[in-house]
Fold this sequence. Notes:
CATH class: Alpha Beta
CATH architecture: 3-Layer(aba) Sandwich
Largest sheet: 7 strands, mixed
Number of strands: 7
Oligomer: single chain
Order of helices and strands: HEHEEHEHEHEEH
Number of helices: 6
Amino acid sequence: MKPYEQEKLNKIKEIIFNIPKLNILELGVQKGNSTKMFINICEKNDGHLTSIDIDDCSKVIKNPRWTFIHSSDDNFEYVDKYLKFNFDVLFIDSLHEPNHVRKVFYHYFKFLKLNGIIIIDDVVWLPYVKGGEKDNDFVERINRLTFNKLLEIYNSNKENLSLNIDFLGSGMAILRKKNNQLNEENKIKNRLFTIKNILKNIYSPKPKK
């Protein structure tokens, strides 16, 4: 595990560690780094972790506080049979694609308690820009689109959600459920590229030397 990944897990731990009888829903297991961290917390505060992954990750750990569901996390008809409406934390770290993130966010939102926390991994593009430490055109694009999708969701739900962005490494979004209602997102109107503003940029007065 890279140092910044461990630091991100430490930050998540700080946010959720003191929640009594913590009930977590994790989308995406892979090597189980976050899964093992969540289980350690659950053992300390009498909690439970439910994880979903399209790959069979059932051997990542063995613990009575862990339920693994082998499925795509957007196979809602199948997955919902195993879930109850009482999660404190929703951790989204499966398919990093804006439409998928949006789909699972809206679906699993209703399974969260009021004041529940949603953490979405890999939403920052800065390390992947041209000349950046991880220069990668595809990841830059997909993370930008995911970031913008989250802004659209938040902008349409300011009374229903709080939002903070942690820019460490590939970043993570930290949201809190303030209301049981969740509005559909709307495109944010951008005036940067209007003719008026383009002309302003071209003909703006140059600073005096």
